[in-house]
Known about the structure:
Chain A is an alpha+beta fold. Chain A has helices at 38-50, 107-118, 134-139, 150-168, 176-190, 200-245, 249-394, 400-423, 475-495, 501-528, 533-563, 569-618, 621-657, 660-700, 703-764, 799-819, 837-850, and strands at 2-9, 18-20, 27-31, 72-79, 82-89, 95-100, 103-106, 140-141, 425-430, 438-439, 442-443, 447-452, 456-460, 464-468, 769-772, 778-785, 788-793, 825-829, 855-860, 874-875. At the A-B interface, helix 5, helix 6, helix 14 and helix 15 of A face helix 2, helix 3, helix 8 and helix 9 of B.
Amino acid sequence: xxxxxxxxxxxxxxxxxxxxxxxxxxxxxxxxxxxxxxxxxxxxxxxxxxxxxxxxxxxxxxxxxxxxxxxxxxxxxxxxxxxxxxxxxxxxxxxxxxxxxxxxxxxxxxxxxxxxxxxxxxxxxxxxxxxxxxxxxxxxxxxxxxxxxxxxxxxxxxxxxxxxxxxxxxxxxxxxxxxxxxxxxxxxxxxxxxxxxxxxxxxxxxxxxxxxxxxxxxxxxxxxxxxxxxxxxxxxxxxxxxxxxxxxxxxxxxxxxxxxxxxxxxxxxxxxxxxxxxxxxxxxxxxxxxxxxxxxxxxxxxxxxxxxxxxxxxxxxxxxxxxxxxxxxxxxxxxxxxxxxxxxxxxxxxxxxxxxxxxxxxxxxxxxxxxxxxxxxxxxxxxxxxxxxxxxxxxxxxxxxxxxxxxxxxxxxxxxxxxxxxxxxxxxxxxxxxxxxxxxxxxxxxxxxxxxxxxxxxxxxxxxxxxxxxxxxxxxxxxxxxxxxxxxxxxxxxxxxxxxxxxxxxxxxxxxxxxxxxxxxxxxxxxxxxxxxxxxxxxxxxxxxxxxxxxxxxxxxxxxxxxxxxxxxxxxxxxxxxxxxxxxxxxxxxxxxxxxxxxxxxxxxxxxxxxxxxxxxxxxxxxxxxxxxxxxxxxxxxxxxxxxxxxxxxxxxxxxxxxxxxxxxxxxxxxxxxxxxxxxxxxxxxxxxxxxxxxxxxxxxxxxxxxxxxxxxxxxxxxxxxxxxxxxxxxxxxxxxxxxxxxxxxxxxxxxxxxxxxxxxxxxxxxxxxxxxxxxxxxxxxxxxxxxxxxxxxxxxxxxxxxxxxxxxxxxxxxxxxxxxxxxxxxxxxxxxxxxxxxxxxxxxxxxxxxxxxxxxxxxxxxxxxxxxxxxxxxxxxxxxxxxxxxx
Amino acid sequence: xxxxxxxxxxxxxxxxxxxxxxxxxxxxxxxxxxxxxxxxxxxxxxxxxxxxxxxxxxxxxxxxxxxxxxxxxxxxxxxxxxxxxxxxxxxxxxxxxxxxxxxxxxxxxxxxxxxxxxxxxxxxxxxxxxxxxxxxxxxxxxxxxxxxxxxxxxxxxxxxxxxxxxxxxxxxxxxxxxxxxxxxxxxxxxxxxxxxxxxxxxxxxxxxxxxxxxxxxxxxxxxxxxxxxxxxxxxxxxxxxxxxxxxxxxxxxxxxxxxxxxxxxxxxxxxxxxxxxxxxxxxxxxxxxxxxxxxxxxxxxxxxxxxxxxxxxxxxxxxxxxxxxxxxxxxxxxxxxxxxxxxxxxxxxxxxxxxxxxxxxxxxxxxxxxxxxxxx
Lengths: 888, 376
């Protein structure tokens, strides 16, 4: 396909008609700065082909300042040898017209034809979108999308496949993919996708089969059990019948009866033996009784002999005792005499000794008494003195203070008296002796002088009275003071029991003297009679009394002491004691001997009596008779014992030979056997009963019929499982074959595309390989990198590299499509902007090469970069607004 | 003059595993219905007795319900039914008969013989020498004692046994219980009624297998009969009449399909099947897609029409013709797959079957897809 002419009008910034002509069949380079209108032209081409003329979604085509505009595009192009002119007006005057030498179409029909020619779809409504674009969508690279390959490839896939098939001359199965999907789906219902394990219905069928088989196995087991039970029942019933007919314990019972009989016989024998043994015992007892009696008689005889012997002995002992007793009596009398003499001697010795002692004591006591008498006399005197001195001491005691007071008072009285006398009225009397004159009622001596210190009355009988009043002024005072002092003095003296102070003085001297003397006397007394005079006196009296007694006793003793020679008291006493001891000994012995004699004599009497009694018995007739009888009994019993013992031995041997223990064991054995056999029989009966019960129960369940039914179920389940298995395997096989076929085909189909791809790729990356996916999109890139071979997903490459690969891939698709006879037109709108200079150089080679086969429209704002593309760039800007007429 | 009905091998309680469960149940029930029909025949023909020569039951352990159903079915004939146990229902210590007796299910008109012996029927003028099986299997001839068995003078001697006549039957009998081939002669029997062989079969003039009255397997040995035996007098050759009793006809056939018209033949035969048919069809050979479709249709129709239809197509190859493939529009690699499967079918063994199955599936799917979109 080649574009020959492009004309736009009222379209975006091209409000005026703008036309491009003189398109090269190969590369066409359009340059212009930003917003110069390059992209608008690309958009115009796209709109012309893709957008439906009646679409309202193309507002972007309208010039900004012209709401009433009718954007129009007119394109002349050539496919093969046919030239077409497509004219589309949008919005206000929506119109589409296609004409070619053979004819023309309008509206939808024209659009459908265009779509068919170029290989894209028209949208049912709205704006044309990427998925509608088909081949042009792949080959017309919009600004900034050249690196996105996969979506574009996807939308053109069917066209590409068709092209591939046409190239290879082969057809991909028309139903292939749908069929594979269907088979996979069907298979997926029965087998898991991953490992082909049964699933869904198939799995259920297998499980149902397994379950049915398990049930069948159970039923089989139960049937087998049932049949085994039936067999066992038959067997047991047969045994039961046989045993009922002919009980096995009967033989044992016969054996038991026999054993019982034998044991009964043995019991009789044993009873007899017991009888015999009792008889033997009785006979033996009798024998022993006889022997006992004889022994008793013999015993008594021995006793008699013994008694007589004893009697002799006792008699002899009595004689000896008597003799001893007499001898001892004589010895005693002698001892008594000797003691008597010794006692007298002792008395004498004692008297002599006492005499001497008393004499000595009397002399001593005499001296003592004399001394005591002297001491006593002295003591009494001293005592008297002490008493006398004590009396003095008993007078009223005067203290030194009293004395000083007395002296002071006396002095005061004296002084006052002097003063009184001096002041007093002196009254001197010279009277007759019988005058009877009184002074103050007091008689007055005829010669007398009185000092009056107070008013006084002198009465003269017959004459009257004279009142004398002392005249001194202080006389009264002195009188008073004197009276007071005298009073005090007298009071004091009275208190001291004295008449005057002198007396008091004398008394005091006396006192002190007496005290001294008394202490002397007391000391003397204490020396003479330390325990007091009375003690002294008592001692003297006691001694005097003793003296008197001693003298009396001495008077008694004197004749005795003088009588004979007095032996030593101690010796006499010792002798006396010795003799008395001997006498005592004699006494005791004598008494003992006497007692012994008495006992012996009693024994003798006893022995005599017993001997006589015994002798009487032994010699009696009865005893002799008894002895005879006992002898007879003894002999008789001995014979009987011998006979019976023989008999007993015989029976015991018989018993021993019959082995009663074994017979008992036999009996036990038979008894146990019978019990066991009967029990076994009962158990058998019970077992049969139980077995019957079980079989009855099982039988009612129709087990075998059920088993047969279950077998049918298993068969059905097996059939189902087999069917599903067959289906699953068939599907598996089918899927495998189909996928293999498809893979194989894909490989074949991809070959030409891979060839074209490699052609371009090697211009960019020598020796590199680019794999193709199932969807024909580029997959992995393998190339020689700076560090040796490397490979990776195209998607993972840099933006620039992806851009380059995107262009390359598209060119390869274009080659393929061209080979398949499809129209191809390559448009690059500002593509490869991320490509560096070196790569761009390579890409230029690529593009130049592609332009040998395809028309290539390149729009760029970097004219410098594309200078060496071998074509003259056409500047869009310079033409803007101008009505270009063709070439540059 | 005596007349009796000789039958055997009712095999009540038998289940049919090879059929779908519902068909199996119907076939099992049919056996009891057939016994009721036998009772009816006995009454119609006014027989003196019905002799049942063993295997009344298929298993020892039938459900009580089945047991009762069978006993009810006997009511249509006044009796006596003279029955011996066979190997399937041997008179064991415990089993179907013991249970029937114990549960008092045996009707009065049924004379069950569980111990060998002579049973006299004075009114009918014959004695039955019965040899029941008391074990599942025996290797002794249980009829040996017939030779020396005494019967009243003038009585017809009729043997009743269950087992395999030695040297005559093929080894397909299901029991080793042997019976001497000349027993009728040696025991001076007027007639020997045998059971065990499921087909109706004459051994000699006086020795017969009645066969099962209702077929239970696909074996063309003439099952489905009872024998009406007339004995005019002692020593006379009995007149034996076959009476058809089967409710269902069991047929097994095989066909090899080579050309298109073979399918039509088979289809025609299938179309002839009715409600009394139990059929097993085994097809081999090859068939194209169209033929297969017609065949399947015919099979489906026959399945509905017949009592039961089993079909085995494992050895039938599906060979799509070029036209078939063109019709399926199997282009590209799908076509290649079809070719591969066709080739694979030619090989022997399981793989061939698998390939046929896969091919069938593929054809089916393609046929389904045909109305769908096509691309030029």
